[in-house]
Structure formats: C-alpha cells, structure tokens
Amino acid sequence: MTGRLSSQLLALIASWLAFAPMAALSAPGGANDFGIPQVAKINEEIRKAWDAYQLKPSQEATESEWCRRVYLDIIGRIPSVDELQDFAKSRSATKKADLVAKLLYDDNYTEEYARNWTTVWTTVLIGRSGGTERNSLTNREGLQKYLRDCFARNKPYNEMVDELVTATGSNRPGEQNFNGAVNFLTMKVNEEKGTQATADTAKIFLGLQVQCTQCHNHPFNEWKQQKFWEFNAFFRQTRALRKVVPGTGEVESAELVDQDFGGEGGTPETAEIYYELRNGLLKAAYPVFVDDTEIGKSGYVSEVNRRDKLGELIQQSEYLDMCVANRYWSHFFGYGFTKPIDDMGPHNPASHPELLEYLGQQVREHSYNLKELIRWITLSEAYSLSSRVMKANEKDDPLLGETPKFTHFYLRQMQAEQLYESLLVATRAAETSGSYEQQERNKAQWLSQFVMAFGTDDGGESTTFNGTIPQALMMFNGELIQNATDAKNGSFLWNLANSNLKPQQQIDYLFQAGLARRPTKEEIGIANQLLIARATSGRDKKQPINPAAAKLAALQDVWWAILNSNEFIINH
Amino acid sequence: MKNFATPQGMNRRHFMSHLAGASAMAIPALTMGHTLRTHAQELKRNRKSAIMLWMSGGPSTMDIWDLKPGTNTGGEFRPISTSGDVQISEHMPMMAKQMHNAAIIRSMSTREADHGRGRYYMHTGYVPNPNVEHPSYGAVIAHETIDQRPELEIPPFVTVGGGSEGPGFLGMAWAPFAVNSNGQIRNLQVGMDERRLMQRMVALDLVEKGFISQNRGQAAQDHENILRKTLALMTSEQMKAFRVTEEPQEVQERYGMDNFGKGCLMARRLVEAGVPFIEVDLGGWDMHNDIFNTLSNQRLPVLDRAMSALFEDLEQRGLLEDTAIMWMGEFSRTPRINGTTGRDHWARSWSVVVGGAGMNGGIAVGKTNEDGTRVDTEPYTSQDVMASVCKSLGISLETTFTSRSGRPMKIANSGKVIKELFA
What we know:
heterodimer, A: mainly alpha, 24 helices, 9 strands, about 50% helix, disordered N terminus, B: alpha/beta, two-stranded antiparallel ribbon, 14 strands, about 35% helix
C-alpha cells in the first residue's frame, strides 16, 4: 500500500466509522382501528382468543418493518429506498392507512398490484407448472392475461369466479374467440370424466375437499361419494377441443365448449351419470349442488347449461365468501383460520370461526371488492405486530402444531416471485428491461428451476424454493445475484458508488434497500474491514489499488451479504 | 470462474483454514476432531444405505409384479419365470434375472388413493395431519445413520429427478437435496476467489446472527443451517459422485440413457460415496388411458433396464448386502379396466418391491385373490414396509422422535416388521 492511498482509505474508513445508526423509529401505542369498523371487529375477535389462551401480543413492528411487509404482501416486492423514506417522513396519524390506500388504489401501483395477484392466483388455479408441459391444453399466458385484466380493473371476486367456472372460448391470446378464463378448466375436463375439474372447483372456490370421496364414502359421512358425482355432473357437458399446428401433432390451442350430453344411460332428457360403489354396484347421479339444490336433469345445453347453473349456485354459497376470506387472511399471515385453508367444514373446525364468518359476510356486503378485504387485514392490530416472540406468547407457535393465535407476526420466506421482483426493484433493473411480456418470460424461465412437477392427473408439484440448498446455491452464485451485485459501469452499485451520497450514506442505502433498516455499528465495522480487504488484496500487491475501485468492490461484498441473509429473504 | 469442487480448485482443508481464521460459520465437519476420524474405517464397514425407486403417479402392480392372466381384470400381459421363486411381467425380462435379490410384497393394502395424500403416506408412514408435519423416509434414515459417516460433506438425503417429501419436524437440515439426473448441480460455480467469499461470509454471518438473536422464530436459524451446509458442499471433492457422465459409456448405456437410468447410476455412485438415502423418481404412471401400450412401450423398458442394472452393480460390488432398495408408488391402479383401456386409482390391494441389506430375495410375500381385488393374507401397510427397511439398516425400531410440540412418535409409526423378509 502506498502512503497516499493509505491516508485516503483511512479518511474513508473514519467517515464510515463515525456513522452511527439511529434508534429505531418508535411506534405509536395501542390498537388503532383507523375508524374502520371491520378493522375494529378483527382486533376485537383476535384479542378474544388472546384472552382465552392467556397470551399477550408482541409489541408493534417498527414502521419500516411494517412498511416492508405491506409492500411484499400487497404488491409482491420490497419497498425501494425512496418509498421507505416517503413513508418514514410522513407525520400523518393515518400514514399506515394512507400507504395501504396508495398501494391499492393509486394508478402508479396498479400494474404491480395486478402482477402480484396474477402470480398468486395463477399458482392457485393451475400451479407453477401448469401450461409448461408439452402439448398442454393450458395456455399460461392466456390465463395471466385474463387475471391481469381482472386485478387491474379490480373486478368483483364473485364475477371472476363465475367467469372462471363458466367460460367458453379459445385459450390462446390472439385467437378470434380468445377467453383467457377458460384456462382454469381446459386441462381438467377431458380426462377421467372431469373429476379434476370437480375437485379443483370445489376446493379452490368453496374450500371443500371432495376428491377423496370420488371412490368411496368418507367413513363418517355416508352421503359423500354421491355428493362428489352430483357435483361432477355439472361438468359433463363441457369439452376442451384441441387445435393442432397444421402438419404436426403439436397442440396450438384449445377451445372450451359446452355440448349436449347424452348421459351414460343414453337418455339425454335426463342425462344421468353412473358411479361405482365399493361393493361394485352402480348408482346414478344428476347435477345437485353441495347444499342439495337440484337443477334440471336435461343434458341439452339449450335446456340446461349445467356450468352456468353451477356458476349461479356458487355465487349464492356462503362457502364462496368464507373461502376467499380464509385464503386472503392466510396470504397476509402465513396461516389461515383452517389448515389447509381449502379444507373447511365441520370435520376441520376453524381457529376463529366467528371472525371467519364475519369476514365472509363483509366481503359479500362489499360487493366482493377484494381490495377492501386487503385493507381491513393489513390495518389490523395483528398484522402490525412484531415478529419478535416474547415469553408471554412463545406458546403461540403454529410450528408446534398449535392453531395460530396471531400474537406476533410469523416468519415466512419470500416466494420465489417476490424475491425476483424485489431484486429488480432494489437494483433498479426494472427501469431498463424490456417489454412487460419479455419481463414475464424472463421471470418464468428463472422460476422454472425451482418447480418440480409430478406429472399426475391432479397437477401435483413441489417447489425447491423453500429454504433448501439449491436455493442457497442460487443466492450465493446464481446469475440473478451476480447481476444484482454487478459493478460494471451503469450498474446499480456503480451508480450508487458514483452518486452524491457520502460513503457512509452509501452503506446506509444498501441496508435500507435490502433490509429496510440502518446498519448496526458492528455491521459498519465489517463494511470497513471489507474495504480494507478489497484495498489490499489485489492480485499484484505492488500495484496500488484505486480507492474508488476498492470502495465499489466493498459495496459489492456488503450487498451480497445483505441479499444472502435470513433477514432479507424472510418476510418479518 | 473457478469451481472449488474440481481438482484444479481449492482443496477443502486449505479453504477451511481461511474460515477457521475468520472464525465465522464454523463447519460441523471441522470440529469433528481426531477421535471420530480414527474410527472411520470401522464405521465404513457398518455403513448402510437405502435407495428408493419412487414411481410417481401410482404404477399398476397387477401388470408388473402380481399378474392375473386369464381373468377379467388381468389385462394383456403374460407372466414369465425369474431367477427367484416368483413370476413377473413379460415386459421385465432383465429384472427377471435379478429377482433372486428382490422380494415382492403382494399384500399391500392402504387407504389413500389421492396422489398428494398417498405420496405423503407412503413416504412417512403417517396420514396427513394438519397439526404435525412428519419426516419422510430420507430424512428419518439420514438422521439415524449420519453418525456412521463423519466424513460425509454432501447432503445425506438426495432426490434425483423428483421432489420427494420434506423433513417435517426434523427441520430443514434434513431436507432432500433435489438434483437433476444429468449430474450438473446448478450454481455450484463460485464467481470469486475463496478469500473474498470467506470475507463475505463473515459479513453475512453478522447479519444472520443478529437476526437470529432477535428471537423471531425457527426459520431464522434454519436459514443459517442451510448456509453452512451449502458452503460445505461447494467446497467438497465428494461432489464428483454426482457426475454420472464420467462413467464409461457402456455402463451408462446398461442403465439407460434416459433420466431414470442416469438417476439409478447416480444412486449407485452416491451409495459408494457414503450417502445414506437416495430417492430416484420415475413418473408417468398415472395411466387412466391406454395403459398396456404405455406400459409395454414406454415405462417398463425404462424401469426394467435401470432397476436391473442397479441390482446387478450393487451385488457385484458387494454393496447390496448393505443397501436396501425399495420400489413403490403412492398406490396402484384398479383391477377393473376402464372404458378408455386405463386403470384408475386403487390402494386396497397392491405390491411393493424391496431387496438388499439382508432382506430375503426371490420370494413373494402375501397373496391377492384371483382377480386382484382383495388381499387374501395378512395385509401390510406403509408403516410395515418402513419398519422392515429400518430393521434391515440396523436402525432400532424403539427409536422415538419428539415433534416440536413434544409429542413422542415412534419410528415408522410403530409398523411391524414383515417376518418373511428376515426368516
């Protein structure tokens, strides 16, 4: 090291050391309901369970922890430094309500809101691998186009469900009668008499798991096998017609249609279906909804369109309301009121039955505006709590098999999609990348490394993006992280290093960008050690190292460490 | 770019010395000490492994292991004689020469005929329960045999070409390491020199520990455990066990150049490297249509080639006596042939195949009735298979785990050992 370099470095180090983190922002005390009755009711019901189990809530999360949380959960990525600072600066008593309203209703966030919920619902409806298999009858882009439109326009949820259940048309964007909604069912109606359509429709929209009753009665509910096939009968007019690329066997698209159904007994006027009891006897079934409502038995579409009737009956069912309330609660808390969230009913009692029923009713009364449901949940006291566990609530740990009481925020890992979007925003890569479609394709390609499809009729799959070694390897060495920590001219870190920010502010910026907090003294100390290491560990010791290059390399090291940390990847 | 796992890269001990100097991220292997190492040879002799061949989708065992020719349900295939005292499908001719090494349990009778539930049940011995996540085979066996292999640096539970099932309450440290059958591990290449990586690890460790110390829950600690394991793996010479393409061409061809063939070959290499549990996935068994054509032209040739090569190689190398092999899916398929020449889901009467690790070969255990719709002898379950495999590996059936809620749970869900396998 030359003397000149050393003094420059020392000055730089001194400036970093002089920088001490400020105390955490103090949070206002007491449960605030923002004057919203639904929030007040949630707080009341959640507190009832705390009292009943003699639990006490953790203190409130810091404002920036809470801010990071709502960004991740509502629009699917962490906040940028500017967004964090905007929130921190506000002195308004309603700043939290203002931020939630902004993320939900401000035009600047519409695209990200729609993108996030399109991702969430695509996974619910067709899984992470749906449409990626060869010759699939599912067109993933088609479904996403439809969903994006729903969420961008905030289409009432009941209408969306109705469209997904009753849709007809082509599944492929660009075709004349394109209707992306058909992609929920195109792959589920042709095989095995539409049993997959039956099981998924009941599970996803009504929270009823009927698939096991396909072959036998549940031991405690004698009627269930009958119910399965009665529900199945609603799908028997429906077919997905393949269109192949001329001259090849490759599927180009699929069209979902309703056709007259002749029935399995050859009498279309009363088109019945048959199923086999375990003793080998055959029994007939006609379309009857889960609440025992019957519809006409005719198989002629002109007389009875069975899926249209099903759509109507689903809209009348209170299971529709409770199921979506449960699903959204689970999205924001990591746990719903039942486990699993799509298995409701007397055999699986809810942890907070009154609250679940109330939220369902409120969803219906507010015309299925899911943004309102999100507002109530995110402004609740439970959602505002710290993830730090205390003696007085350490028993509230769903990992111990306890039903969740929501006395503290439960840690959960970001989804792969959230990580991807977060890195784009944190490194401002989104500002320079291609069209929306291109971005989505890049993301899909990256995501595919974590998806393992089982190739079964029920679309079973698993993800390795759940805290495994392949995930850690990707975070250590993968291209996405290499790009995020790149130091070439014009990159995020290069721009930061060459910005007007003072050196210590640059470190601060990285901690804010990744962790929504300032660095501790120890962390600044490590940053300094890294700077020294970068300034002294050149390949050729005789050649002096440019301090600017050393600083940039140290910023790379710090940023890499932040991105690889538990604090970054875990929503807390 | 430098790959530390290659011979040209860093040697592991050198790499670890940086780490020790930096006092960050202590690696368990580093603290193992001298005494354990001196016992390594002895331990190696007691080293047991298991390989599960997982047939995702539910294979029709009536068409493979328990044929019913000449009945309504029997289908199109004929039985052939084998090197054991059993007959199997004509489409398994190579496996027929290995049947002296394998036992067919023909009286499996289970209740889960849904893919997800059946998968869970056959992997854990438990039916799904909302309040507790049970550890799967690989996690249990890795957990119980890890002490036999102090020098193992790569994950003890590997799944090839599939996802397997999770570690449940044993924690993420016992999660399956999922790899593709081509043997290339994604993102293994380290993009910087080792000193700089270690310095970064020191910074990372500070943030990591800071977050853990805030008492926010298990996930924070689990994350750090995985970081450690990942670092150990990135620097390990043992990673070469994954490189199946280094095998001679004729060996690769004997297993088959498809994914399952490569997976089985990788399983053999991993057993040789000391990995206690490997699962190899072969999907495509969910045959609701056109089952006989699909079986005879697609699935069975692939299965026959790879499975027989695996038995043959392990036996030749003297490894079969210490390696249990299991073949199973989540359930089987209906004896009744449906209107589209397929078979649907069926769990009431079906077969599982096991072999190796001292279990009797060449036999069929139990019987189904004439048309395969019922088990006529004592029915066996997932728990019983698991208990038998554990016994073959020398794992005590008195072993009891404690779930995070403090609930004691006996290994293999108190399954009973299938006597005929050990008589």
